[in-house]
Amino acid sequence: MLDSTATLQVQEVLDTLNDAFASGDVDRITELFATDCYWRDLVAMTWNLKTVEGRDAVADMLTSQMGEVAPGGFAIQDGEIPVEEDGVTTAWITFETKTGRGWGLMRLRDGRIWTLLTSLRELKGFEETRGKRRPMGAQHGADRHRTTWKEAREAEAAELGYETQPYVVVVGGGQGGIALGARLRQLGVPAIVLDKHDRPGDQWRNRYKSLCLHDPVWYDHLPYIKFPDNWPVFAPKDKIGDWLEMYTKVMELNYWTRSEVQSCSYDEASGEWTVRVNRDGEEVVLKPKQLVLATGMSGKPNMPTFPGMEDFRGEIQHSSQHAGPDAWTGKKVVVIGSNNSAHDICAALWEHEADVTMVQRSSTHIVRSDSLMEIGLGALYSEEALENGVTTEKADMIFASLPYRIMHEFQIPLYDQMRERDAEFYAGLERAGFQLDWGDDGSGLFMKYLRRGSGYYIDVGACQLIIDGEIKLAHGQVDHFEEDAVVLADGTRLPADLVVLATGFGSMNGWAADLISQEVADKVGKVWGLGSETTKDPGPWEGEQRNMWKPTQQENLWFHGGNLHQSRHYSLYLALQLKARLEGLDTPVYGLQEVHHLH
Ligand SMILES: Cc1cc2nc3c(=O)[nH]c(=O)nc-3n(C[C@H](O)[C@H](O)[C@H](O)COP(=O)(O)OP(=O)(O)OC[C@H]3O[C@@H](n4cnc5c(N)ncnc54)[C@H](O)[C@@H]3O)c2cc1C
């Protein structure tokens, strides 16, 4: 199809959409959609992160929201031309609502809307001070009572949390808390980001010393400041730590270090949280309206207990406590688990000439880093993608526009390609006795990440050590510990000086239990997962990640985090939801998620 035909087709749909919105004709809008349609909305229509599936669900959402949200002005984005490929016409679009301006991506099949992504980008009247609106900085003229930028910053830092209260408290200042803090700062939302560490970035510095990011630089940018173009593809953890520290400073975050939150409670009558903080030995009580837990989805260790552990004469560490291999040269180390951390830790120990055994408890998805980069990410996040005009922002939107219900269908062929390309490598692993999987439906790494946040290793070298028998492999569950060994269910005895439990991390509502109450944690339910009814992602289907970046069953409690890509992209929607509430805008939430599963 000619581009002009695609444009005409899209324009016709948008014109009808605008007419029907103007006259409030839900049926007419619904008819524009294909029967198997998906409308993913990021805050623009639903004040929620919500995917509605099928025409009836579209109609239900519109009936509920249309009047109050008043969408309209749908147009092909300036400078973008709709394209047709394999029977699907794709168009970048813009639109408005009563309160905001939006950006979206629409796909038509047979002239009807198949997938629609709508996302809120800014609130009318509360636009960010950037670009043409950037602050002046200097105050020209003469003023005897002039306050410099530095003095103003210092005064703000001294007062906030003491004489004035923040509207938002963000607990946890890793990449998630920092990215959200930057967005809130830009939007003029008074906020404090609290972290128990000494310095921003310590979350990364304190991890095992060989760690480099597993995702490439194009996927990892923070909002507002992109990594420079000499930044390494896979940044070493301490370099990321320094970047986060620099970012926190230049983005002018009110970031309290050495500030551990002891407890939080919510008073429904006043709609206010009481957050007790130990700030470097001093108790400070904060009274925000909104509380965000950005305490890390890989932050709450799963620490299993086994009989005999107390008699073990060696050392036992969770992977998050394992500093690195230096002390273990010539020693016997058993690493329980076979995902990312386990592989990285085993490889570093091998490099330091420790005698390492990995215990594989269940099958693991392995994908080679270069194959993942080329086949899995390349089209969206790479130098080539940038050359093709796919900016980070566009890539984030394209990625977000594939509804979770059908995302696996797009992923499976990519992983089939990887399997074929690296057949020899996988055969080697199997010969070494390594149990492989590709996810329950063959959809690979991203789906595993979204569904369960675990179960994979991006190979950067450890697999060859397993293939060569340099990292020994054992299988099965741990039965018990003896004074000098770990014993597996089949009786295999693995002598050890050190046991590393690379046993993963728990659901983030565990943080709510620790910091607020078990009652609130249960009220909110499981955090993360789509409800796909695949391993470790029990149903029912939610269609979005449970409880992340969106309203929860606990009023004014939010969860934020995830990988750098998610921290970057979804912090925008969370920040806009918070800003809207600060400004007292109507935020009618559609489809507040129900609670499923307590952990
Ligand atoms: C070994 C490993 C490798 C990873 N590699 C990558 C990668 O390559 N790319 C990627 O994008 N992601 C990666 N991840 C996953 C994830 O992105 C990181 O875990 C990331 O650090 C999550 O950021 P976050 O801000 O959500 O949480 P965290 O970085 O865990 O930060 C949470 C913060 O909350 C603080 N906190 C917790 N409780 C309190 C309290 N009560 N009071 C005050 N502060 C508190 C903690 O001190 C911590 O600083 C990796 C994870 C692990 C474990």
From TrEMBL:
Q: Which Pfam families match?
A: Pyr_redox_3, SnoaL_2
Keyword Calcium annotated: no
Record protein name field: Putative flavoprotein involved in K+ transport
Residues that span the membrane, as ranges: none
Keywords (A to Z) from UniProt: Oxidoreductase, Plasmid
Q: Which InterPro entries match?
A: Auxin_biosynth/cation_transpt (IPR050982), FAD/NAD-bd_sf (IPR036188), NTF2-like_dom_sf (IPR032710), SnoaL-like (IPR037401)
Return one GO MF term: monooxygenase activity
Question: So which domain of life are we looking at?
Answer: Bacteria
| All copies of domain SnoaL-like, residue ranges | 17-114
